[in-house]
Each structure stands twice: as C-alpha cells, then as structure tokens.
Specification:
six-stranded antiparallel sheet, 9 helices, 12 strands
Length: about 475
C-alpha cells in the first residue's frame, strides 16, 4: 500500500484527534508525522483488560497489519503484563489511544481475580472503526492450561484447594488399635477393681505380687518361694541353674537367700545376693575352678552386691534412716557326679536326705546365730538355747554393717544317692530336726523335685506360715545331661 493511501485512510490524527484532509503528511494541529502510522484493517477489535488473553507463544499470526487504535490497550499500573499485540514492536509509546473523557469507565468485573494492590481496571474504549468482538480462540497447539481472566500470567502451576494429610505414625496407630487392658479383679472378693498401688477398691485386700509366690524348675532342680501367711511381702530370693565342669560332667547349682527383716530393703538385698552368687558359680565351674573355691568366691561376690545397695541415694530407702544397711543371709549347694559342696552365711540350712530312708538324714550346715554360739561354747544345751527369745538372733550376714565376712564352706562325698534340701528358716522352723525334714519330704523328690518343693512349702504354710518360705530340691548325684523330672 502506498504512502498516500495510508494518509487517505486516516480520518483523524491519532495523536490529537484533529480532522485530517487528504494529502496531509503532517497534522496541522500538533505536527504529528502521519507517515509513521501503519494502515488500519477493515475490522479489528480492541482487546479489553478483563478478557482472556492467550499466551504470546501460542497466539496465531495476525491476518492483517494491526490498526493504530488496536495496537495497544490502555495499560493499568497494577497489571504487570499489558496485552500488547506481538506484531507491532515498532509502535512508539505515543501511539497509545487515550481514553476519551466523554466515555464513562466500565465497572470492575466482580468475578475476575485482581491483584490485591491494584485498583479496579477500567474497560478500554471501543475503536470507532468497528464493533467489539471476542478475541479468536487459541490454536489447537496452544497450552492446555487456561490463563486467569485478569490478563495476568502466572508461571507457577495452580495449587490444589486441598492438601493430603500426613500419613499417621504406625506406632501411634498400633497403640490406638490395641485393645485396652481389662481391669484386674480382686482375688479376695472377686468383685472389686485393683488400684495401681495393688489394693482392692472395695475390700482393701492387698493383691499378690510377683514375688509373693515363685516357682522355677531347671532340669533336675526345682525351687519354690512363698510370702507366707503373716508377712506383707516376700523377702526371700533364690537362683537355680545347671552348669558343667571342664570334663563335661554336669553340675547343679542352688542359692537361697533370706532378707534380714530388721534391715532396710531386705527384699532387694536377697535378690541381689542370689543373682550375684548364681552368676559367679555358673561362670566359675566351667573354667575348672574347684566347686568349694567357687562357692567361697560366690559368697564374696554376693556380699559385694549387697554392700553396693548401702551406697544408693537416701531417696531409694524406705524413709527409715534409723535402720541398718540392707542385709540378708545366704546358703548354697553345688552337686556333681561324686561331690557335693555347701556354703553359707547366716541361719539358712542344707539338709541331706538319703534315697534309702532307712539310712539317717543329716544337717550339713551350722547356724550363725546366738543359740548356736551358746551350744558351741557349752554354755547351754540345744533345748535351752533354742528356747531362749534370743535364739534366732543371727551373728553372721551379708551387708555393709556386718562385723566380719566369714564364708563357711564344706565338701561331702556321700556313698549313696539322696536329695539335698536347701531352705530358709521359714521352713526349718516347722521341721527343725533332720528326721522331721525327711518325714515331710516325698519319697519321689529326686525324680519330681518341683513336687517335693511344693510339699515342703505347703508343710510350712499349714504349720502357720509365720515367715517367708523358700526351698530348693537337688538330687545327688547329678544326673546325666538331658535327664529331667518325671
């Protein structure tokens, strides 16, 4: 198209809207150079700021050169991307169509999202050369994601309205899924619920605790311990195990401890001593230590374990600072194929009961007590000494306040099979003589040690159960490995 045809097509000056005449090359009012204005198409709408605008990369090529009126839409200061036609980069800024004062601004569209800091964008005026029509639809190759209606492009993908919740912790889910424990019912009234302190809410009866009654069977050895009928807790403890000598022959080990009730925490003392002595014997015998020496070392180890309890903080004690340090007695036995060894400190005892009850039984230990000292010194006979109220006062024990540790050990080689009864005074108070103990012990105790121990404990409870009762039963000689109770 020639220059003249471009000027003839102009009805008004694009800068000041002054009417033009044919052949004018410059505006007579403002002097605007009319040769720099591109020709106007027959029909091209002016884009509004609130209409959808396709992405510049996806917009199709314009069919004809754009007209000056449609070159640039009025720009708003709050909108970062103005809808500029891509084919008119050379149009100067002065070619922006000013808004006529006579045309009122269009109201803000309520449904279109607008940037928070931007005022409502007025609608662009319609070019006089043609009616306003909607923009052409994007080509099939355009981006599938729609651009927001404000004409502002967002580069980040749209965020979901809802976010997935974090997966629950499997440990918490397992705790929630685990059924609640059923409340404990009182063993006395059978109706009341048991509190956390171990007493019934209805009748107030103290419930049995773990140490109130204990039973253990280890091969041919068995032990039973019971709280008794008068004490509020069980202050006895035991340890039984099977070991072996270096030549592979079996060795049976039993330790029984009795807490001193007049001392602090006697139950802790007996438990610590029994565990320390049992562990020491189980480790020393396979190394080849002689059973009698191993028994002596085990008693020393038990003494150290009880002494260590006295060094614990005062808060661990039973709010009785006037009491002595934790203390207990100890008696133990080691049985092999041809030798039995006993060791003790205190007044717990070991009895020997032969399988042939026609042979006499025997007591293998001597008490560390006031009565035993009186008899040994010849000051009293046995009947007079044990009738005295001071008879059961012990003169030897394990504890930090003991006068002097004197472990007693003895070794025997019986010429016939039999059974060893290792017990506290809670049992032998009801069967003090060896003959009485032999009468109570069942005949099949060697083959059924657990049954024999239960019978002995039952005998003490039937006699009154004034003290804690603990007993261990060991057959002699030690049976070959693999043999057990019938």
């Amino acid at each position: 198209m020639s220059q003249m045809s471009q000027q003839a097509a102009l009805a008004r000056c694009p800068s000041c809207e002054e009417p033009l005449e044919a052949g004018d090359r410059f505006c007579g009012a403002c002097g605007y150079d009319l040769s720099a204005v591109p020709p106007q198409p027959d029909d091209h709408p002016t884009l509004t700021m609130n209409s959808p605008v396709p992405h510049p990369a996806a917009a199709p090529a314009p069919p004809a050169p754009p007209a000056p009126e449609a070159a640039v839409a009025p720009s708003a200061p709050a909108v970062p991307h103005a809808s500029v036609a891509p084919s008119a980069p050379a149009v100067p800024q002065a070619s922006v169509v000013p808004q006529p004062p006579a045309v009122p601004p269009a109201p803000a569209v309520p449904q279109a999202p607008v940037a928070p800091s931007a005022p409502a964008v007025p609608q662009a005026p319609v070019a006089p050369s043609g009616p306003v029509v909607p923009p052409p639809a994007p080509a099939p190759s355009a981006r599938p994601a729609a651009v927001p209606a404000t004409g502002v492009r967002f580069d980040r993908p749209p965020e979901p309205e809802e976010y997935a919740l974090q997966a629950p912790d499997p440990r918490v889910a397992a705790e929630l899924a685990a059924p609640a424990e059923e409340p404990k019912v009182c063993v006395a009234c059978r109706t009341g619920r048991v509190d956390d302190d171990g007493y019934c809410e209805v009748c107030g009866h103290a419930q049995p605790r773990e140490r109130d009654h204990m039973e253990q069977e280890s091969g041919p050895i068995a032990a039973v311990s019971d709280r008794g009928l008068r004490h509020h807790r069980n202050e006895d403890a035991f340890a039984v195990c099977t070991s072996a000598l270096p030549d592979g022959s079996p060795a049976l080990v039993a330790i029984v401890c009795d807490g001193v009730s007049s001392a602090t925490r006697p139950d802790d003392a007996s438990l610590a001593a029994s565990r320390a002595a049992g562990d020491c014997l189980a480790a020393a015998l396979p190394r080849g230590t002689h059973p009698q020496q191993a028994m002596h070392d085990a008693i020393v180890a038990a003494s150290h374990a009880v002494d260590a309890l006295a060094g614990e903080p005062e808060t661990a004690r039973e709010h009785a600072s006037h009491q002595n340090a934790p203390a207990c007695t100890l008696v133990g036995a080691v049985v092999t194929t041809g030798l039995l060894v006993v060791g003790w400190v205190g007044d717990s005892r070991v009895y020997w009961v032969p399988a042939d009850r026609s042979s006499p039984p025997a007591r293998l230990t001597e008490d560390d007590s006031w009565a035993a000292q009186m008899v040994a010194a010849g000051l009293m006979n046995e009947a007079e000494a044990y009738a005295d109220e001071r008879a059961h006062a012990i003169t030897g024990w394990l504890g930090a306040d003991a006068y002097e540790l004197e472990p007693h050990t003895a070794a025997f080689k019986p010429d016939r099979p039999g059974v060893l009864v290792v017990c506290t005074d809670g049992l032998w108070n009801y069967a003090e003589a060896a003959e009485e103990m032999a009468e109570v012990l069942p005949l099949d105790a060697a083959a059924r040690p657990l049954h024999g121990a239960r019978v002995l404990v039952g005998h003490a409870l039937d006699g009154g159960g004034h003290d804690n009762v603990t007993v261990a039963v060991l057959p002699f000689p030690a049976p070959s490995p693999g043999a057990g109770s019938a």
